[in-house]
């Protein structure tokens, strides 16, 4: 059996889980998430524990076992504590700003790049350290939005300028070697 799929999910205080066939709704202090899962797998709620069971050992069902459990766990963690991705802006003249709820990036283009947060997402900007925090209760949405922000100006290998994830290592290249006479 799948090691990930076998482990139970503990439901913290203040989180409610409703199972209606293949649809699971998770409601907590940070928000509400709903997702439809494949009907081949059985999702069982036993007190304050959520379990995913598979009826057979077919390869397709086996491959969905751990995935379903991980998605359910992300839903429970998201509505209780939330998720966060941190990005760093590096480069001379590059800076992030927050205007109202929107994120505005000045990263060397002739125009500023503006991001409006979708529902459930919040931006925090530290202008001194030039950090951007993307926070929300949907792990998928937080990760996708952070990737979209990074895609505006990915870090380049010569000077390291651009937007990178916090802790991301950018492999540096040597510039041109001067001509020796």
Automatic annotation (TrEMBL):
One of its GO terms (molecular function) is rRNA binding. Pfam families: Ribosomal_L6. GO terms for biological process: cytoplasmic translation. PROSITE patterns: RIBOSOMAL_L6_1. InterPro entries: Ribosomal_uL6-like, Ribosomal_uL6-like_a/b-dom_sf, Ribosomal_uL6_a/b-dom, Ribosomal_uL6_bac-type, Ribosomal_uL6_CS. GO terms for cellular component: cytosolic large ribosomal subunit. Keywords: Ribonucleoprotein, Ribosomal protein, RNA-binding, rRNA-binding. Transmembrane segments: none annotated. Residues 11-82, 91-165 form the Large ribosomal subunit protein uL6 alpha-beta domain. Belongs to the universal ribosomal protein uL6 family. This protein binds to the 23S rRNA, and is important in its secondary structure. It is located near the subunit interface in the base of the L7/L12 stalk, and near the tRNA binding site of the peptidyltransferase center. This is Large ribosomal subunit protein uL6. It comes from uncultured Chloroflexi bacterium Rifle_16ft_4_minimus_38099.
């Amino acid at each position: 059996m799948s090691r990930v799929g076998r482990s139970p999910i503990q439901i913290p205080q203040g989180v409610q889980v409703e199972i209606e066939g293949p649809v699971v709704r998770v409601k907590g202090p940070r928000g509400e998430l709903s997702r439809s899962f494949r009907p081949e797998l059985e999702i069982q709620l036993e007190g304050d524990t959520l379990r995913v069971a598979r009826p057979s050992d077919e390869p397709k069902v086996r491959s969905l076992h751990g995935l379903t459990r991980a998605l359910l766990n992300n839903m429970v963690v998201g509505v209780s504590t939330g998720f966060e991705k941190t990005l760093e802006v590096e480069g001379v003249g590059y800076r992030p700003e927050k205007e109202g709820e929107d994120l505005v990036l000045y990263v060397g283009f002739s125009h500023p790049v503006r991001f409006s947060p979708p529902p459930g997402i919040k931006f925090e900007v530290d202008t001194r350290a030039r950090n951007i925090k993307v926070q929300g209760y949907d792990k998928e949405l937080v990760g996708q939005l952070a990737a979209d922000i990074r895609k505006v100006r990915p870090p380049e290998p010569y000077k390291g300028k651009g937007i990178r994830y916090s802790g991301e290592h950018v492999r540096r290249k040597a510039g041109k070697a001067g001509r020796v006479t």
